[in-house]
Amino acid sequence: MATDRPPEAALGRVGRWSLTAVAAAGFVFLFIPIAGIIAFSFNDPAGKFNIVWKGFTLDNWRDPFTPGPLTDAMILSLKVAAISALAATILGSLIALALVRYRFKGGVIVNLLLVLPLTTPEIVMGSSLATLFFDIGVDRSIRTVIIAHVLFCTSFVALTVKARIRGFDWSLEDAAMDLGATPWRTFSRITLPLITPGILAAALLSFALSIDDFIITLFNAGPTDETFPLRIYSASRTELPAQINVLATIVLLVSVAVLILGTLFKRRLDDA
Amino acid sequence: MAADDEGDRTKRRAGFVPYALLSPGMIWLILFFLVPLATLLKTSLSAKPSRFVPDVEFGWEFSNYTDSLSTYSEQFIRSFVYAGAATLLCVAIGYPVAYVIATRGGRFKNVLLGLVVVPFFTSFLIRTLSWQSVLSDNGPAVFLLERLHLMGLLDAAGIAENGRLLATHAAVIGGLTYNFLPFMILPIYVSLEKIDLRLTEAAKDLYSNGWQAFRKVVLPLSLPGVFAGSLLTFIPAAGDFINAAFLGSPNNSMIGSVVQNRFLEQGDTPTAAALSFILMAIITVGTLIYARLLGTEDLV
Amino acid sequence: MTTARPPRTRMSRLAGPPLTRRAMLGRMGAVAGAGLLGPGLLAACGGDDSDDTTDTTGGGGDSKALWFENWPGYIDEETVGLFAQASGLDFKYTEGFNDNASWFAKNQALLADKKSIGPDIVAPSSWMAARLIGLGWVRALPLDKIPNAANLVPTLQKPTWDPDGTFTLPYQSGMTGIAYNISITGRELTSFADIYDPAFKGKVGMLTEWRDTVGLTMLLLGEDPAEATIDSAAEALDKIEQAANDGQIRQFTGNDYMDDLASGNFAACVGWSGDISQLALDNPDVRFVIPDEGGLQWSDTMALPAGSEHVDNAAVWMDYIYDPENAARLTTFIGYNSPVDGVQDVLAAGDDAQKALSESPLLFPDEETLSRLYVFANLDEEAETAFEERFATIIGA
Question: Are residues C292 and C183 in the same domain?
Fold first, then answer.
């Protein structure tokens, strides 16, 4: 079709240049604290707080996973995120399938109930869940944290998958069945591959949301349970070891690697 | 909220199947979202006789609401001002970023989007602490601004206070803006992406310059994204307390700080519950008004 | 967007009732929902056996276990290992106790039900210990199994927060005074009035630990914090509130005042002696002083929560660290005031670094300094709530 010339081309070079400049500044803004985190992972802090630059050292990187409360907290966060993402992906995908593929009464209510958790401030969700647990006599623990995480992740998953699979050509399913495929075969050979990318994206999103969650976890974790963000918060009152920066940088590098690999993989798939 | 699409003919007729698919998730949401809200409501109307003992007694204590509203009106107002400012800043920064990625990204669209999201795989506490370090009195930001003789300007503009960047309104608003920027960029990007290129071409032909074409065609079509982004930014920002705790002073505290203190340190659960409901009510009303103003109902 | 569905042919009708596929999906949905969730939840149940907080009376199956939850940065690297070796116990040491108020709020429900909260020993500050004792949420110490308890320094025996001395043993004591960075203040500070000096506007910090903040201000105004009531403290509270509103006070902090001192955000703040003795090792500009009007003294104690299971093991630990040799090792690292008698002698007989410590006025204050130290009054619930409410307003929460 016609070339992809954005409407502001007529604005002139100045307009385009300033637009790009603002966008570039936005990207720089996004990465300023990241640069700080990475830089300070190489710092040799004077005391207990890794806040003032003292000197360059590689010591912090020699053994980033030294056993200790931070590493334990990281492992706990990963465990919780894995379980929550799995459960939320299943629950949310089922909801999305129902909403997109079926006509039924109550669709509006379902949509409303999905969107409400997103529009509720975390502090309200956290405190209300904690109040419920106290009321029914359930002690706060890892289990309550997982319940809370599955809650808000399910909404994200359902809405994300729904958006992804809305425009698909479902007549493929009918065609397969007309050709004699069994329902299960239709599902596994036609439907599932179609919706898998959307589900995977939603699962990754849930995983990230769960790892980073702080406020809701703060209200619902047991007194001695510490996920990574909780550990940082409680420790930050008395110490900020460089190990935090090292672990954060590792997470960052891993996610960049996944991003690059994913893009390359997708390119190869598209080219093939 | 997405419109009810019962008229969609690609859908199958109801049987019990959709309900079977929905039930696990819906039950979870009802059990762990609606029911807790009900218990929170009950707690907000209760009294807690002793700070030390966790039990509350239900008693239609509407005074919890009226007292909280008057005692903490300063924090309420400040929270909405901060969240509003942060949302505006997010639109100002996020829209150009989303626009450039959508229109100029080409092959690198996904990579660029990934770059927007990647910083957020570090915990947001760490990012806020990093800002605290960057903006500290002996840190690089203050150093740079003083060298460039810009500190006086910032002082006059009310952004800095007495030559410092931390413990100011600007620092907290800046932190909020930073933490929620991707939530603004991604929805705007999605709605820009959906715009059919032929529309923009037609607009260029119809209008005399690019800015008009943008304003009359692209901008209105991208409003659902702006709407979604604004909600996803404003609502969590209004309830936040971390940025105020790490980057602000006692004069910058937000309503989230109060709720956190009441609930997790004072053990004053009825007041915390009442404050939570007031916050939710104001946000809900605000959202409805905003939706009316923008004339859009689609969230995704 | 919508594509018309191809009309159903007769062939598809022959393939079976249309319900079959939907039924399949429905069944799969139900199975997926229940079956896949199950293992997930079970995995969660199995995954947290290290922090099971359910009640098990009778000591459970592991009677060689001991769990001490302490403040961060309050132990050296060797003691934990040495103790585990010497006692043969399975010793778990965690540092999750970083704020009295939030610890209390988190554990309130469990403590009220006398259930186990996990750790066998916790480290509440003296005023929190007083509250726990008043509520009956701590167990009596088996003092007969702690012979070294006799080494407790006389000044800390039968303290105001534990008049019978049966519920707590101090872990470390400390002094509250002014911590400041002389390179920023430009001069030595001697009085608490210096904190309110307008020259330091916006560079002053105070503690969220209001007993310290209000106590020092009361001393400045000539009131006795040991006899504090909400009325006698009114003037002090007003003064603090005024300073906060004026922007004199930049922030109310917990322990993180140290990083603000180091990063130059604070010129001066209310601080604790041990923190500064550690910070000053790396940064000689950081000083600590007990104000002329007086300073405060406090203790972090060891107490056994009501549901704690391994009481006898706890006694072994307490006996161990009340041995002057072990106590000296702790104090060398922590830099606070040891509650154990004889530590100064042990250090004086040690190497040069230890000798220097034995002469440090921060670790072993002289008589003159001790005479200027006060302990904040023990408050009942009503008074405490009044103070908490007022202070919460001041810090903007």
Answer: yes
Q: Which CATH code for domain B69-294?
A: 1.10.3720.10
Shortest Cα–Cα distance, C141 to chain A (Å): 23
Whether A139 sits inside 8 A of C262 (CB atoms) is no
Whether C381 sits inside 8 A of B50 (CB atoms) is yes
Across the interface, which of C251, C389, C392 has its CB nearest the CB of B249?
C251
Do C264 and C348 share a domain, yes or no?
no
Helix (H) or strand (E) holding C353: helix C352-358
Q: Does B252 touch chain C (CB under 8 A)?
A: yes
Residues of chain B contacting residue A112, judged by C-beta atoms under 8 Å apart: 1
- In eight-state DSSP terms, residue B215 is I
The overall average pLDDT reported for chain A is: 83
Question: Looking at beta carbons, which residues of chain B come within 8 Å of C388?
Answer: 51, 266
Expressed as residue numbers, the domain containing C290 is: 174-297+377-394
Give contacts of B 211-250 with A, CB under 8 A. Answer: 211, 213-214, 217-218, 231-232, 235-236, 238-242
Check if the beta carbon of residue C315 is closer than 8 Å to that of residue C145: yes
Q: What confidence tens digit (pLDDT) does each residue in C248-286 have?
A: 999 998 878 887 887 788 999 999 998 888 777 778 888
B72 in helix, strand or coil? Answer: coil
Give the CATH number of the domain where residue C231 resides: 3.40.190.10
Q: Of the candidates C20, C51, C262, which has its C-beta nearest A47's C-beta?
A: C262
Domain count, chain C: 2
User: Is any Cβ of chain B less than 8 angstroms from the Cβ of C14?
Assistant: no
Whether the pLDDT of residue C7 is over 60: the answer is: no
Of B110, B118, B126, the CB nearest to A256: B118
- Chain C residues whose CB is inside 8 A of the A177 CB are 12, 15, 21
The beta strands (E) that lie in chain C are given as 65-69, 90-94, 121-122, 138-139, 168-181, 204-207, 249-253, 268-272, 286-289, 295-305, 373-374
B265 and C102: CB-CB below 8 Å?
Answer: yes
Which chain C positions have a beta carbon within 8 Å of B267's beta carbon?
Answer: 104-105, 108
Residue range(s) in chain A whose domain bears CATH number 1.10.3720.10 = 67-170+200-271
Cβ–Cβ < 8 Å for C322, C156: no
Residue-level pLDDT at B48:
87
Residues of chain C positioned with their CB less than 8 A from the CB of B143? none
The whole-model pTM stands at: 0.83
Measured CA to CA in angstroms, residue A254 lies from A257, A261, C61 at distances of 5, 10, 41
* 3-class secondary-structure state, position C65: strand
Nearest to C15 among A79, A177, A225 (CB): A177
What pLDDT, in 10s, does the model give residues B270-297?
A: 999 999 999 988 988 888 888 788 765 5
Q: What is the pLDDT, as a whole number, of residue A58?
A: 84
Q: Letter for the amino acid at A1?
A: M
Task: For domain A67-170+200-271, give the CATH number.
Answer: 1.10.3720.10
Cα–Cα distance measured from residue C314 to residue A199, given in angstroms and rounded to the nearest whole number? 51
Q: Is A224 on the interface with C (CB under 8 A)?
A: yes
Residue A257 contacts B, CB cutoff 8 Å: no
Q: What is the pLDDT of residues C32-55, one digit of tens each?
A: 333 333 333 333 333 333 333 333
Token digits of residue A212: 């980073």
